[in-house]
Specification:
Layout: H1 14-24, H2 31-36, E1 45-46, H3 56-60, H4 65-71, E2 86-87, H5 98-103, E3 118-119, E4 124-125, H6 163-198
Antiparallel strand pairs: 1-2, 3-4
Helix pairs in contact: 4-6
Length: 200
């Protein structure tokens, strides 16, 4: 059981929430949260292992599996290679908007999408490298707003995005809300099917 389990934001990513969760509990890295839940980063993190029981991760952070799936909704997870019950965390290729972090320090789910290159709210290109470290932003860090080198991402300078980048980000932002609903419905249907099979 963790001492602190902050309420996730509606548009917060699972990867970002794990960083915020580890920061709230004074862990040096979100890897500690995964280890406590008996999980390891390989190709993907299995969120739901047994349809009859809550997952280890949901029990640890005091959420339902449906909530976890909502936070982990990505287009790639609808492919045949990664199911909607799995979630992939990447060590690099993390993007963020310094302006969004200044307004509220959490990672938006839409930043995880490969096609999203800009923040449509602030019309800027998302930051992919630490300006101080000059390397890709790592997921495994001690704080949402700080790089492992100590640089505060909120002070990062960003370029103005093109209208095409902004429009695409705005469209995908609206799309991800519908996608998350579909994934939860799929999960609930699997639970119902498993329950029916057990009584057949």
């Amino acid at each position: 059981m963790l001492l602190q389990t902050p309420t996730p934001y509606e548009d917060e990513s699972l990867a970002g929430y794990l960083i915020r969760l580890s920061e709230s509990n004074y862990y040096p890295s979100p890897n500690w949260i995964l280890q406590l839940a008996g999980l390891h980063i390989n190709r993907g993190i299995l969120i739901v292992n047994n349809p009859y029981e809550p997952s280890q991760l949901s029990q640890l952070i005091q959420m339902t599996d449906e909530q976890l799936i909502l936070m982990a909704s990505l287009p790639s997870q609808l492919s045949s290679l990664i199911t909607s019950q799995q979630y992939t965390l990447y060590k690099f290729a993390i993007k963020l908007c310094p302006h969004c972090l200044t307004e509220s320090a959490y990672c938006r789910k839409i930043w995880d999408w490969n096609l999203v290159k800009a923040c449509y709210l602030h019309q800027c290109v998302l930051l992919k490298k630490c300006p101080n470290f000059n390397k890709g932003i790592r997921w495994s860090r001690s704080a949402v707003t700080r790089c492992r080198c100590g640089f505060d991402f909120r002070s990062g300078q960003v370029e103005t995005a093109t209208s095409e980048q902004v429009n695409l980000s705005a469209y995908l932002s609206s799309l991800q809300k519908s996608l998350a609903t579909v994934q939860v419905s799929q999960h609930q249907q699997k639970l119902q099917d498993a329950s029916n099979d057990s009584f057949a």
